[in-house]
Amino acid sequence: MTVVTQTVVIQDGRLRPDGKVALDADDPALVRGLAVFETLRSWEGRVSHLELHLDRLQGSAAALDLPMPERALLRAEVKRAVALLGEEAAVRITLTAGGSRIVRASPLPAPLLQARCASRRHPDHPWLTGRAKHISRAAWVVAVREAGTDEVLWVDGEGLLLEGTWSNVFAVRDGSLYTPADDGRILPGITRQTVLTAARALGLPHQEGPTPAAGPWDELYLSSSLKILCPIVELDGRPALGMGPVGRRLVAAYEATLRRSGDAAGPGAPASRPR
Q1: Pairing of strands 101-107, 8-11
Q2: How do residues 101-144 score in pLDDT, each as one tens digit?
Q3: What is the mean pLDDT of the chain?
Q4: How far is the C-alpha of 195 from the C-alpha of 55, rounded, in Å?
Q5: Which residues in 219-236 are b (16+ Cβ under 10 Å) and which e?
Q6: How many whole angstroms separate alpha carbon 170 and alpha carbon 220?
Q7: Domains and CATH numbers, the chain
Q8: Paired residues of 220 in beta bridges
């Protein structure tokens, strides 16, 4: 029987009906920010790219020397949470240094249809790879608040784009797709990987490498599991095109990929996503 709730939370295998979790007051996740997470989604009743997200979660846990639960356990809890929610879900998996695992499923948020962005110098942390998806994001939150935009795009000392505060970045010029390289400074997104695969399948020229924030670009996008491709309509106060022809082709190819892949959530999972 499907139980429809606003949020489904499973902590250490136990369903938390009140949606709250309990952590030891000395858990390093609370006092040091030592925890890692993944955000993913369901699509037409299937959990999208679950194995790729678990791969990245395992890499993040290793980077912070955190315990990694059995993948089969996480896989089952994610599918259970999505099935219990009873509608398309945004899912977050969190692992704390204190050994707690938390799976949270909630209804998909309203999509961000376009984004205003500002660029800021990236706060380099060479002692921790950018590939680790950790919860210590206070600097990111404050940067967006200070900029008064939807996201901040981090740039390096040469003015090259790296990534957004919550997203990867794509740019288009003369029909070619560009995205910053996975050089250890960015979090290589699962959606980023899937968009690049779609570009190859479509025969679109694409390049992973230097991507100047100043452009000039015909199209600019944020990408993430929940945004897919969100057009940037303003960067540092300058207008940008928004959704363009290359972006539309990539979104269509990406959605087709989602329909062909994914793990079934289980009994009671939704058959289709409201559009």
Answers
A1: antiparallel
A2: 999 999 999 889 999 999 999 987 777 888 899 999 999 999 99
A3: 90
A4: 18
A5: bbbbbbbbbbbbbbbbbe
A6: 6
A7: 8-109 (3.30.470.10), 115-259 (3.20.10.10)
A8: 171
Q: How does residue 261 score in pLDDT terms, banded at 50, 70 and 90?
A: low
* Closest alpha carbon to 223 in 39, 9, 3, 19: 39
Q: What are the pLDDT digits (tens) for 74-97?
A: 999 999 999 999 989 999 999 999
Give the count of beta carbons closer than 10 Å to the beta carbon of residue 149. Answer: 21
Contacting residues for 178 by C-beta, under 8 A, at least 6 apart: 170, 171, 172, 206, 207, 209, 211, 217
pLDDT tens for each residue of 235-256: 999 998 889 999 999 999 998 8
Lookup: tokens for 129: 């790879």
Query: What are φ and ψ of residue 257, in 5° steps?
Result: -65, -45
Backbone angles phi, psi at 61, to 5 degrees: -60, -40
Q: Pairing between strand 228-235 and 219-224?
A: antiparallel
